Fold this sequence. Notes:
By secondary structure, the protein is mainly alpha-helical. It contains three helices and two strands, in the order ααββα. A hairpin with a 2-residue loop joins β1 and β2 (105-106).
Amino acid sequence: GDARPVVSGVRTAATPLAHALRAAVPAVADARALTARLPALRAAALPALAQARALLPAAGPAARALGPALADAVPMIRYLAPRADTIAAWFANTAALGRSGDSKGRWARFLVLFDPASALGMPGADPPGNAYTEPGDAAANRAYRPGDFPRLRALPKG
């Protein structure tokens, strides 16, 4: 038969294949180094795994009891992670409160207000801002809308 189609295909694939093979060299070297270290890893891991065999049955009930709290951690982390800069700014500002002072020592001033309408749950007493803010929204806070924030599950009784 005619070898021209095969030669054309090989010629087309040769350059990308050469690049891929060159790029694979460091990965193969890393895999070779990892494989060489496996006996040392096995020797270090076996005693720890043997100890874990005795620990796991005792840890099972504790892990099951922690389940609801750990399940609540997921939506909390999903909510807090994008707001990391806001949280850091709050801590920085709070730390700065105690930097003022005079010859008698450091001081901070606070003004604490309690709104009786909000405390008693009276209609229309909700704050005008959204307590569950979007990341980076300090300059343009929006009013709260149901469903804007994650709900946590109640821990089981008992």
